[in-house]
Amino acid sequence: MQNHFDLFQLPATFALDMNALDCAYRDVQGRVHPDRFINATDAEKRVAMQWATRANEAYQTLRNPQKRAQYLCELNGVDLQTESNSAMPMAFLMQQMEWRDELGDARAAKDADALEALDEQVKLERKNRLTAIGEQIDSGDFEHAAQGVRALMFLEKFNEEVHYAFEALES
């Protein structure tokens, strides 16, 4: 079975040309969209629907940097073990604790400026992590990239908490 990159005839790299991905997706969708199979047999319609669904899932995976990184690691034999492996470097764990304290303080004080500053810190860390993960993946260092993806997953969840805190202030 071909992988997501093969489906769109794109190189299996983290640094993916999003315009090329969009064009390839539209091309594949144009060929397999169920509307093109209105007069086809039920079996042909089912196959078209399966291909359209697969193209949608592949596109969503490759379009999202975190999902793309995770997919590339798994494609290269590295299981992220997201459910069982939460081991992180001590510096990152300390940063997490500091951010959680800042979030708690900002919530308690109903301080939108502090939440904004925290949001900016997390966005910057996410950007830096993505850059490092991309370099690791594209140089074949999938083990370290997997650790970076696990950190990125924390950042995504924590960023949601910051946004929930913003919403709570507004209501």
From TrEMBL:
Pfam families: HSCB_C (PF07743)
Protein name: Co-chaperone protein HscB homolog
GO CC terms: iron-sulfur cluster transfer complex
GO molecular function, one term: protein-folding chaperone binding
Organism (species): Massilia glaciei
Domain J: 3-75
Oligomeric form and interacting partners: Interacts with HscA and stimulates its ATPase activity.
Domain of life: Bacteria
HAMAP family per UniProt: HscB
Taxonomic lineage: Bacteria, Pseudomonadati, Pseudomonadota, Betaproteobacteria, Burkholderiales
SUPFAM superfamilies (UniProt xref): Chaperone J-domain (SSF46565), HSC20 (HSCB), C-terminal oligomerisation domain (SSF47144)
Function comment: Co-chaperone involved in the maturation of iron-sulfur cluster-containing proteins. Seems to help targeting proteins to be folded toward HscA.
GO BP term (any one): [2Fe-2S] cluster assembly
Annotated gene: hscB
Keywords, ordered alphabetically: Chaperone
Gene3D superfamilies linked: DnaJ domain (1.10.287.110), HscB, C-terminal domain (1.20.1280.20)
Chaperone found in the keyword field: yes
Family listed: Belongs to the HscB family.
